[in-house]
Specification:
By secondary structure, the protein is mainly alpha-helical. It is about 75% helix and about 0% strand.
Length: about 450
């Protein structure tokens, strides 16, 4: 049986936290550097591995959907490294480990510049293994760096402004992402072949290295003097799993991670089934970023004002209907692009509330700061496994249904229909499980919605 863990941290843990944590003034000064670093890192992600550009690169290289799913699964699956990397990060310093491994991954991405040469000289099979090896090394560096970053971020972001600060960071990240997408769409439209991707990867890696340099000015992240060895760390993790609220949180967040991972092949769906051009697909991503931009501050305000769990559940409710919209979108029509833009915007709005609510709930209510290393390592590993399974299942599902074509009444049925239907079911499951997480507020989702519309109507009068 699981039991709630509500006891206070030990005296030695409290003393160490007080000695090593930066003052509030130092935290406030350092927040700007985190915003800059996050924005530049987002630019790096969208022009290299984290957006439609990379999916289109793999497709142009000649990989099939199963292979693309395998490559995309490396990054989240390597989240399992968090279980062994967390004590290493605590002993050597969260900030130091983050900067070393995040910097290394920016250099590793440059190996992708050799992929066209490998393809031309040794063939598709060798090129596929080369890309897989590169992305595996990249994913290991990413997992170790992010294992260090999350406990560090709990330290340098004040709890009372976490929702608002995350929304401000989201806005900066969104603006940077839009710049990356505009550049990517322009380059792909005007530079033919693999040269477009090579330019984007090289320029993106340079920007990524600058983002790591900005993180140097963020305070905190020092080594924990009483960090235990690997055996002690594993024992502490077993203790964490006796925390009922934490287990419920993991149960709700894992399907959510799977939902987002299953949409890996959305760019190929838009290209193959809906009939959008490559540059339209890349530029259409800006619509999703616009949804994030216009809603971030509202979601952050809602989270700080009314609590994290209602914010999470409202965002999840929006995400539940998005896959059904993709199933119903007209194919090869003049309405295809504008409707795709509208759906992407709604998805950006929903996922923003979902993610901001999740992170605020985790850091403010679920994870005790005295045991952040163990708790966050388990969370990162569990959601990583779920997100890693997603691309593999998605690729296999599309391959299995590759010959499916037709209509049921007015609903188009193709190789992606099963995938989108599964995404809806998982989003509903995550929404149901999220209701069981202990809230950090006294408001229900219904009360928030009622209060929001009452305020809106009063201002209209």
């Amino acid at each position: 049986m699981c039991q709630e863990i509500k006891g206070p941290p030990r005296a030695d843990e409290l003393k160490e936290l007080m000695d090593s944590s930066p003052t509030r003034e130092e935290k406030m000064r350092g927040l700007r550097w985190n915003v800059i670093s996050s924005a530049l890192n987002s630019f790096f992600c969208f022009v290299t591995w984290g957006g439609s550009v990379f999916i289109l690169f793999l497709d142009n290289l000649g990989l099939n959907k199963t292979q693309i799913g395998g490559v995309q699964s490396f990054a989240p699956f390597c989240g399992l490294l968090a279980l062994v990397a967390a004590p290493f990060a605590a002993r050597f310093g969260f900030k130091r480990v983050f900067m070393v491994f995040y910097g290394t991954r920016k250099v590793v991405v440059l190996l992708l510049l050799l992929a066209p040469w490998v393809l031309a000289r040794y063939g598709l099979s060798v090129a596929t293994w080369f890309v897989m090896g590169t992305m595996f090394l990249f994913s290991c560096c990413r997992a170790i760096a992010e294992t260090a970053f999350h406990p560090w971020s709990q330290e340098f972001i004040p709890n009372d402004i976490r929702g608002k600060f995350n929304s401000i960071t989201n806005i900066a990240v969104t603006i940077s992402s839009c710049a990356a997408l505009v550049l990517s769409g322009f380059v792909i439209a005007h530079i033919k072949g693999m040269s477009a991707f090579m330019f984007l990867f090289a320029f993106g890696s340079f920007v990524g290295l600058v983002s790591v340099g900005m993180a140097y000015f963020i305070p905190g992240g020092e080594a924990l003097r009483n960090a235990g060895n690997q055996i002690a760390h594993l024992r502490a993790m077993r203790t964490c799993m006796r925390d009922v609220n934490f287990v419920r949180f993991l149960g709700a967040m894992s399907p959510m991670a799977l939902v987002m991972a299953l949409l890996t092949f959305l760019p190929l769906f838009l290209k193959e089934q809906v009939g959008l051009a490559q540059q339209d697909i890349v530029w259409m991503d800006i619509a999703g970023q616009a949804g994030i931009l216009v809603s971030s501050f509202l979601w952050g305000w809602l989270a700080d004002r009314y609590g994290s769990r209602p914010t999470l559940m409202i965002g999840l409710s929006v995400v539940c209907i998005i896959p059904l919209c993709w199933i119903l979108i007209p194919r090869h029509s003049g309405w295809s692009l504008p409707l795709a833009v509208a759906i992407s915007t709604a998805y950006g709005i929903g996922t923003t509330g979902m993610i901001l609510g999740q992170l605020r709930l985790m850091f403010n209510n679920v994870v005790p700061e005295s045991q952040k290393t163990e708790y966050i390592a388990i969370w990162y590993a569990c959601t990583g496994v779920a997100a890693g399974v997603g691309p593999l299942l998605a690729g296999y599902s599309i391959h299995l249904c590759r010959n499916v074509s037709g209509r049921i009444l007015f609903v188009p049925v193709d190789s992606y229909t099963l995938l989108f239907s599964s995404v809806t079911g998982l989003a509903v499951l995550s929404l149901f499980l999220a209701r069981r997480i202990r809230p950090d507020d006294t408001y229900t989702t219904r009360q928030i919605a009622s209060g929001f519309f009452e305020t809106l109507l009063s201002r209209m009068r």
